[in-house]
Amino acid sequence: MADVTQRFNPHLNQIAVSMIRQFDERVSSIPNILKLTLGEPDFNTPEHVKQAGVTAIEQDHSHYTGMTGLPELRKAAADFVQKKYQLSYDFQSEILVTVGVTEGIAASLLSVLEAGDKVLLPSPTFPGYEPIITLAGAQPIYIDTSANDFVLSAETLRESLQKHGDRVKAVVLNYPSNPTGVTYSREEVKAIAEVLKDYPVFVISDEVYSELTYEEQHVSIAEYLREQTILLNGLSKSHAMTGWRLGLIFAPQELTKEIMKTHQYLVTSAATSVQMAAVEALTKGIDDSLVMKEEYRKRRDFVYHELHNLGYDVARPTGAFYIFAKIPEDCIQDSMAFCVDLAEKESLAIIPGAAFGPGGEGYVRISYAASMENLEEAMERLKRYTKNNRS
């Protein structure tokens, strides 16, 4: 019988299952494990949004939509970003509905990249970008931001662009950031845009946590660099709809029509009932995130102060629902070894910083998308572990 096992795309040899998922599964069987691992809101989808989905199913909205998504959803999305972020997109030609932001990432990167291209990735970063870049035959170039409180400066960006030359095809931004919770001020976004406008590169900006900012209003780089920006957003975090899988791409018409080709052959279209629920979320539920955000703010403040008191160095998170903490110097410094030891000794699971690329080793990511009761217990377990395992 012929052996085909060695005939896969060779780029797959450079890809592994996400360390986040691997670690989460590894510790799940530990008795009484308390997990602050995945980026999963602990809130339920708002009731009125759920009912819109139920109604769509009951009314037999079970057929394909157009490849770009329901017109009423694209119109709702255009109105949403106009009201929230002062962005103007034509719903008929500049918006795509995707199966989660994950598909939006894949469709965007696979549309713009070819073999030999380079993509700049400020790091630490969400580990969902590099595998798609690698599959396309391109090369991820990490920019370690750990020395600057995890903020990519305009100066560092310009240096990287100059260093890597014409093969730089794209820059991937993610803010508020997973894993650090850090976001960018208007001045910082504007400075980055001023640098990028001088280079013919795509800016793929993942802003899925845009509704979860705690100090200042979110500023999209598309406000300053519209013609180069492929803006990604969705409902997973803002409306606690991770399992619904609904994402959005906003881009100029010339870019959207090309990305749509890749999107079509990846998924055809998002589920119709989900799209109809998303219309409800973006219209009647336009401010549904506010209640969740206030609760996340309280949790952030609690965990931040607890970590500070334990001697963990933390860049204060201003968005999303993560804290990225530096492991104290008198504890295990290998982040995977630290997290495994913590899970085995105290039944507390947090994510090793090594999962997020250069600049992440020596740190841990804690998701505070959990009840205050669980967070209080988690901090007690971490306090006990830290006290008993210092060298």
TrEMBL record:
All copies of domain Aminotransferase class I/classII large, residue ranges: 32-382
Catalytic activity, EC: 2.6.1.-
Keyword Transferase listed: yes
Gene3D superfamilies documented for this protein: Aspartate Aminotransferase, domain 1, Type I PLP-dependent aspartate aminotransferase-like (Major domain)
Superkingdom of source: Bacteria
Pfam family, one: Aminotran_1_2
Keyword annotations from UniProtKB, A to Z: Aminotransferase, Pyridoxal phosphate, Transferase
BP GO annotations: amino acid metabolic process
Cofactor(s) required, per the database record: pyridoxal 5'-phosphate
Family label: Belongs to the class-I pyridoxal-phosphate-dependent aminotransferase family.
Listed name of the protein: Aminotransferase
Biological source species: Tetragenococcus koreensis
High-level lineage: Bacteria, Bacillati, Bacillota, Bacilli, Lactobacillales
